[in-house]
Amino acid sequence: MNKKTLQDLDVNGKKVFCRVDFNVPMKNGEVTDDTRIRAALPTIEHLLEKGAVVILASHLGRPKGEVIEELRLDPVAERLSDLLGKEVVKTDTVYGKEVNEALSQVSNGDVVLIENVRFDPGEEKNDPSLIQAFADMADLYINDAFGTAHRAHASTTGVAEKLPAATGFLMEKEIEVLGKALENPDRPFTAIIGGAKVKDKINVIDHLLDKVDNLIIGGGLAYTFVKAQGYEIGKSLLEEDKIELAKDFMQKAQDKGVRFVMPEDVVVADDFSEEANTKIVDIEEIPADWEALDIGPATREKYNQIVKDSKLVIWNGPMGVFEYNAFAGGTRAVAESLAGTEGYTVIGGGDSAAAVEKLGFADDMDHVSTGGGASLEFMEGKVLPGVKALDDK
Ligand SMILES: Nc1ncnc2c1ncn2[C@@H]1O[C@H](COP(=O)(O)OP(=O)(O)O)[C@@H](O)[C@H]1O
Ligand SMILES: O=C(OP(=O)(O)O)[C@H](O)COP(=O)(O)O
């Protein structure tokens, strides 16, 4: 990467404005998964060890420029404080008098977490006055928020133009791992794409067809492709206006010699619920009133073989409705295959990462990305604005 990194900056005695992605799942005012907070610790700890004042900034949820009490960052500050083993000064505002006072009272090696930056309408608008307020707080800027690197906001791009700006360690690692995987892949290179967001993922599929040896399709988005092959899919998820594109992709795969791998059998249900009646059917036999909610056992075995023979596997999106036990088997099987393969494994996407975490396989993967949308846009070949805005080496 040709961008400056944390190692290139002398941070001793400096105030460092550090954008992190602490957009973590919460329930009843408690952080339920602190993966993203832990992922930012190497950067924060490095800054503290080197004697910087660390000013952390993050969004949480989508408050759209208003103060939403449930989206305050206090529970995050508490968890961060536990993880760091030191006090984190949390302000109730994003900038202004309270923040300035807090900053005048802290010393080198202290941490301040300002309030949810999306409480200010200027954040998402990349507003000049908010950018200036951020720049006035600090001497240097670090972006370690890979999960938000696809957003051009005041705290992710605007302020980077105003201060010496570099990547944090998490950002650096994400870009390096995902970049290396895509630029110079070990082969056979297999991508497994699942989930439900057909529209979001269709461009990634197009881009991946230029890179991979095997493209495996699963999850809800498989059925638009199954339909494109001419099979009936009952009530399964369908993006009608993407059928033609799905046909184009299958043709492109054939032209390029990419193996395009689709489900052979599926678990169908007579209702979208945990209690639904279910059965396993061949792909060409999905009953009209049923919907396919998971890949079947023959498909799992086929995917397993391909994963086993791959040197590099990228996985984005669950294979079925894994939130219900009855339809979690396909996702579990693929997670197990990735956990067991000798090839290098990369997981991207919020739900895939959550599934791998929930099923207990996170530690067996080589890289679990902290970015969902960000990793997808990266894989599409886009330059992420949060990275572009940083200083070149
Ligand atoms: N066959 C299916 N039918 C309907 N929804 C599905 C199916 N398979 C997976 N899903 C749903 O896809 C969702 C995840 O999709 P998506 O957001 O695209 O994944 P990710 O966040 O990993 O990128 C999950 O909530 C899951 O229940
Ligand atoms: O959680 C995030 O995105 P993700 O669910 O795609 O990983 C990021 O924090 C970005 O949040 P946003 O999609 O509200 O800009």
Automatic annotation (TrEMBL):
Signal peptide: none annotated. GO terms for biological process: gluconeogenesis; glycolytic process. The modification Phosphothreonine is found at T299. It is found in: Cytoplasm. Belongs to the phosphoglycerate kinase family. This is Phosphoglycerate kinase. It holds the Pfam family PGK. It is an enzyme of class 2 (transferase). One of its GO terms (molecular function) is ADP binding. HAMAP family: Phosphoglyc_kinase (MF_00145). Its EC number is 2.7.2.3. It comes from the Bacteria. Pathway: Carbohydrate degradation; glycolysis; pyruvate from D-glyceraldehyde 3-phosphate: step 2/5. The gene is pgk. It catalyses: (2R)-3-phosphoglycerate + ATP = (2R)-3-phospho-glyceroyl phosphate + ADP. ATP binds at K201, E323, G349, G350, D351, S352. Monomer. One of its GO terms (cellular component) is cytosol. InterPro entries: Phosphoglycerate_kinase, Phosphoglycerate_kinase_CS, Phosphoglycerate_kinase_N, Phosphoglycerate_kinase_sf. Keywords: ATP-binding, Cytoplasm, Glycolysis, Kinase, Nucleotide-binding, Phosphoprotein, Transferase. Substrate binds at D21, F22, N23, R36, H59, L60, G61, R62, R118, R151. It comes from Lentibacillus halodurans. SUPFAM superfamilies: Phosphoglycerate kinase. (2R)-3-phosphoglycerate binds at R36, R118, R151.
